[in-house]
Amino acid sequence: MKVIKFGGSSLANGTQLKKVLGIVQDDPERRIVVVSAPGKRFSEDTKVTDQLIQLATLVKNKASYKEVYEDIFSRYADIAAELELDGKILEEIESHFDKLLNTRFRTPELLEDAFKASGEDNNARLIAAYFRQSGIPARYLNPREAGIFVTSQPGNARILPESYNFLRHLHDTEEVLVIPGFFGYNENDEIITFSRGGSDITGAIVANGVQATLYENFTDVDAIYVANPNHVDEPQKIHHLTYTEMRELSYAGFSVFHDEALLPAFHAGIPVHVKNTNNPNGKGTKITRTRPKTANIISGIASSSGFVSIHISKYLLNREIGFIRKSAQIFEDLGLNLEHMPSGIDEITFILRKDQLTPGKQAALLYRLKNELRADDVHVEGDVCLVMIVGEGMVASVGTTAQATQALADAGVNLVMINQGASEISMMFGIVEKDEEKAVRAIYDSFYPK
């Protein structure tokens, strides 16, 4: 059995859904289909999920929402008309919205999660109806019925371990099951969503639960690229990555997947294949536990901006027992999540995402670090970008650091920080944000010369 997931761009209109139908019909092993909400039909379009967030905000504020609601409903109506679907499916979607709009939720967060999830939920109903009309024995399957139960953290749900056992019963299905992605149910039978990109998470969870032979993730690109095409002209495609390489690249800015999206599939050792809905017979990118060796030292280059660094200097810091623990405790007390922690003998730097650091928290942080640690100096540097090079080939290669830093130097990019993981398959460079594109392009040109 294969589990397949389609992203929003693959489900944006009837034309795309006809391609999806062909992909499902092409392989009888594709028996579980996880779907997103309709995405953008063109570059200036708005995703249905974003419209639903707007609708939820209006409802929470008791403001007029008729126009936004009608825009959302029209997306489904347009798709149904293009596919010549029976009018009953629109009645079902309208009934779903009526119930949603008249439900009283315990908290504003639960309201927003329920509204966001309706994008996937209604799309799954519509797609199942389309499959049946086209002769496929298909059925919409609600995540509750499937067995997807999660923690009560709106917008950041975590799957409960017992869900994998509940999902096992789907393995022997003879029908094509269409499951909405992005959400599950908590112990109070309330809808809780995963983080954005959550349909990828649902797909990986289901693949793990049913012990699929393959998890296929269909998107709108032919493969994952070595570098962001917005930074590098026509970068090479990556046709095979390891789980670890993908995890590192996703964290550092690869937009194909959220960094936790594929974890359930990875844990079960299930191969993942990223493919293009518009070119389903293309090679795509395979992601597996191991991969064949290639001549390339690095597999990918990723970058992510929006970080700040907190520098602490103190003479003889390396001899002070508990200094790092005490420092980290101050960050924890203020609810700040740390990303990286490069250090020297008399100084240490903490890297964190700057959207956490309000002016009040920054002032409190600097005061406590300076006074409680008796530091010689504490200061903040903002607008930091992290550039990461990743590749299994780095482990057995000499001179990778020298080659990368020389490329950055030749491009006039100054290094704020350099850090390498213990596994030696990744290396991270801290630079100022304005040099992001220049840095990525310089490293790419050095390791992938034309």
Automatic annotation (TrEMBL):
CDD domains: AAK_AKiii-YclM-BS (cd04245), ACT_AKiii-YclM-BS_1 (cd04911), ACT_AKiii-YclM-BS_2 (cd04916). The keyword Cell membrane does not apply. GO terms for cellular component: cytosol. Pathway: Amino-acid biosynthesis; L-threonine biosynthesis; L-threonine from L-aspartate: step 1/5; Amino-acid biosynthesis; L-methionine biosynthesis via de novo pathway; L-homoserine from L-aspartate: step 1/3; Amino-acid biosynthesis; L-lysine biosynthesis via DAP pathway; (S)-tetrahydrodipicolinate from L-aspartate: step 1/4. ATP binds at K5, F6, G7, G8, T219, D220, Y225. It holds the Pfam family ACT_9. Transmembrane segments: none annotated. Keywords: Amino-acid biosynthesis, ATP-binding, Diaminopimelate biosynthesis, Kinase, Lysine biosynthesis, Nucleotide-binding, Transferase. Residues 389-450 form the ACT domain. Substrate binds at T49, E120. SUPFAM superfamilies: ACT-like, Carbamate kinase-like. GO terms for molecular function: aspartate kinase activity; ATP binding. One of its GO terms (biological process) is threonine biosynthetic process. Catalyzes the phosphorylation of the beta-carboxyl group of aspartic acid with ATP to yield 4-phospho-L-aspartate, which is involved in the branched biosynthetic pathway leading to the biosynthesis of amino acids threonine, isoleucine and methionine. Belongs to the aspartokinase family. This is Aspartokinase. It comes from Jeotgalibaca ciconiae.
